[in-house]
Amino acid sequence: MSLLKNRQYLLFLAVMLLFAVASSLYRGVLDNYLAESLAVSKSGRGVVEFFRELPGLLLVFILALFYRLPEQRIIRIGFLVALAGIVGVLLSGSSFIVSVLFITILSAGQHIVMPVRTSIVVHSVAAGREGSALGLMRSLLSIGQVIGFFGIPVLFAALYGTTETTSHAEGYRITFYIVIGLIIVALFMAFLLRGGTERITRQRIYFHRKYMKYYILQNFYGARKQVFLTFGPYVLILKYGATPSVIATLLGICGVITIFTNPLIGKLIDRV
Predict the structure, then answer these.
(1) Among 13-17, 51-55, 215-219, 222-226, which is the least confidently predicted range?
(2) How far is Cα 81 from Cα 173, in angstroms, rounded to an integer?
(3) Which of 32, 37, 21, 23 has its CA nearest to residue 245?
(4) In terms of C-beta distances under 8 Å and separation of at least 24 residues, what long-range contacts does 11-14 make, across chains too?
(5) Which of 81-95, 104-118, 177-191, 215-229 has the least mean pLDDT?
(6) Helices H, strands E: what count in the chain?
(7) Separation CA 28–CA 22 (nearest Å)
(8) FRET partner for 43 with CA separation of 20 to 30 A, picked from 124, 179, 227, 231?
(9) How far apart are CA 253 and CA 96, in angstroms?
(10) Which candidate, 219, 233, 171, places its Cα nearest to that of 42?
(11) Alpha-carbon gap, residue 270 to 133, rounded angstroms
(12) 37-87 tens-digit pLDDT
């Protein structure tokens, strides 16, 4: 694939892979960390998720602040914000309000990266191959997620073995340290990314009545996904006592499936 001969693009994929591993390590322990270390209730989990997803709702305004910046620089800003967030989560201890604040900051960094990485991919390939390129990147992101999610059971097995324990504080702390290290490495690598030679014209926000059904479907999709991803794992944790290893393994299995489905969907987008 000629795309893989581009060294800058390979570097970009490596950066995204590292960030995907870091994000999945964090996501793999987040629910258990909230339930165990912060004693967040069922309703409290909804409150946490409201603030965690708030940057996604405000993303159009956040990105507007960086309208004139090149995409590679926006990626670095996203990494810096996420790094500040995870450091804050590590240092916040058992304070619920402070923890939620830094969880929100970390989420803001992640949300800044999401649309920009897609834009870089689209502007890096020839017309008509955008779907395949996006499928390749998302497949790679899934590989990073699998590495991160399955890394949790390995780490916790090394720390606790088969011993039943009600506290995984050390495991959470070590996980956060690893996440910090991975984001720092990804940030340094991101400084090696060079912007394209072509000037990218960024369009204004586009809204049209003919896409109303699409907008409605997107709202239903987002609501369904957010409700399940927020409360599905929490039910397993609070009602069935699922450990961090169990939750991370289930998320890892989902990641394995998407490794194969994402490229297929990408090709289908190009064709249809």
Answers:
(1) 222-226
(2) 19
(3) 32
(4) 11/189, 11/192, 11/193, 12/117, 12/120, 12/124, 12/193, 13/137, 13/140, 14/189
(5) 215-229
(6) 9, 0
(7) 10
(8) 179
(9) 31
(10) 233
(11) 10
(12) 999 998 899 999 999 999 988 988 888 888 888 888 999 999 999 999 999
Q: What are the structure tokens assigned to 203, written together? A: 């369009």
Torsion over CA: 174, 176, 177, 183 (sign)? positive
Burial 32-59 (b: 16+ CB within 10 A, else e): bbbbbbbebeeebbeebbeebbebbeee
* Most distant CA pair in the chain, distance: 58
- DSSP assignments along 13-75, one per residue: HHHHHHHHHHHHHHHHHHHHHHHHTS---HHHHHHHHHHHHHHHHTHHHHHHTTTTS-HHHHH
Phi, psi at residue 2, to the nearest 5°? -60, -30
- Which residues touch 10 (CB under 8 Å, ≥6 apart)? 4
Q: Give the other-Cβ count within 10 Å of 72's Cβ.
A: 19
List the structure tokens of 253: 């299995």
Q: Is 83 helix (H, G, I), strand (E, B) or coil?
A: helix
**Helices 71-91 & 169-190 angle (0-180, nearest 10):** 160
**What is the Cα–Cα distance from 114 to 20, expressed in whole angstroms?**
11
Sorted by sequence, the CB contacts under 8 Å of residue 219 that are 6+ apart come out as none
Residues recorded for the chain: 272
Q: What is the pLDDT of residues 163-221, one digit of tens each?
A: 777 788 899 999 999 999 999 999 999 998 876 544 455 666 677 889 999 999 988 98
Residue 1 pLDDT class (50, 70, 90 cuts): very low
Write the DSSP symbol of residue 92: S
How far is 139 from 193, CA to CA, in rounded Å?
Answer: 21
